[in-house]
Amino acid sequence: MLLTAAGCKSSSSGRPVAAPKPLPRSSASSTSATATPTPTPTHPAKRTHRHHLHHKAQPASSTTVVTPPPTPQPTPRPHPPHNRPVVVIDPGHSVSVHGVDPATGLDTSDYENEPEMRDMYDVALLVRSRLIADGYRVYMTKSSDYAPTNLGVRAYLANRVHADIALSIHDQAGSNGGISFDQGNSNVYYQAVGDYRQNPQGRKIYFTDSHVAAISKRYGEIFQRERAAAQGRPITLMSNTGYDLGSRGLQGGDIWIVQLLSHVPWIYNEAGGNSAGMSGLDAADKQTYAKGLVDGVEACVPIRR
Question: Can you tell me the distance from the alpha carbon of 92 to that of 151, in angstroms, rounded to the nearest whole number?
Fold first, then answer.
């Protein structure tokens, strides 16, 4: 995972902040500066003989010495504020990797899917670059396109950094079953109470956080709007997958594992994965996909200037 991350400004209320009273000289300071104790001598102190020093008088100079004005110092740039929004970007898929969530027993394994895995990492890097340039703190769930990263690790990262928003980036690519980027599979999924997955022991794990669900729905609507504007085509908004994922040989249920295990608003994006005449996305379609995602993030969690 790539970690990117600050100075303090005046009170957010706009009121002046009173300067702290100085401590008495005899008191120990509570600041980070520590007084250096006087070292204990290791040898007896030598007697010091005083000498009268006679300074030779200097002749008066006829030259007027002019002290130059101090060199102007540049105004220091303020440090970035600590409250910049935190964004977690999750490019889809991984080389085959196994995992189990200890709290729920859900299988968090992931699998390789090309060219989607490579293309979505490229799109994620475009999104990351633009968000960082605009002042966001950004984390990636994978350190490279082929980094083995299970679904649990992705969700745990977003929880650990208290992400303001997380987004997964997927598409439907390939010569067998791929969908054109400008024709279909343009979906935005948000979290909803009641969505579930079933672990291998048969227990259903439900999404129950109504507060996160409400925010996720609002963010999903924003992503639907911004992606439609960037891609020039309708985007479908969905509160669940719309079918039982068990029909695909996955754990039964209707919510993506990363969304279910996260405690933050998580928007899961799908798109068509083939550009005209090729398997996978060309540079122009990657840029278009990235623009819609960036615009979605910045509309959901804008930086307060």
Answer: 10
Task: Name 158's Cβ contacts closer than 8 Å, sequence gap at least 6.
Answer: 88, 90, 139, 141, 166, 258, 262, 263, 264, 266
In the CATH hierarchy, which fold is given to the domain comprising 86-300?
Answer: Aminopeptidase (3.40.630)
List strand residue ranges (DSSP E) for 70-163, in order.
86-91, 137-140
Instruction: Produce one character per residue of 108-119: b if its CB has 16 or more CB atoms within 10 Å, e if not.
Output: bbbeebebbbbb
State the Cα–Cα distance between residues 195 and 58, nearest whole angstrom.
92
C-alpha Rg value of the chain to the nearest Å: 30
Cα distances from 273 to residues 14, 140, 285, in angstroms, run 49, 21, 9
Token reading at 242: 């719309």
**Considering the chain, what percentage of its residues have pLDDT values greater than 90?**
70
Cite the DSSP H helix spans in 31-81: none
In the predicted model, is pLDDT for residue 79 greater than 50? Answer: no
DSSP string, 255-305: S-HHHHH-SS-EEEEE-B-B-TTSSS--HHHHHHHHHHHHHHHHHHS----
Which residues have a Cβ under 8 Å from the Cβ of 61 and sit 6 or more positions away?
Answer: none
Give CA–CA dist 80/11, Å, rounded: 15
Task: Report in angstroms the alpha-carbon separations of 171 from 117, 190, 257, 303.
Answer: 9, 16, 17, 28
Which tokens belong to 95?
A: 């080389």
The structure's pTM equals 0.74
Which residues are CB-neighbours of 11 under 8 A, at least 6 positions away? 17
Domain boundaries, the chain: 86-300
Evaluated on CA atoms 4, 9, 13, 19, the torsion sign reads positive
Q: 209 with 259: CB under 8 angstroms?
A: no
pLDDT level of residue 13 (50, 70, 90 thresholds):
very low
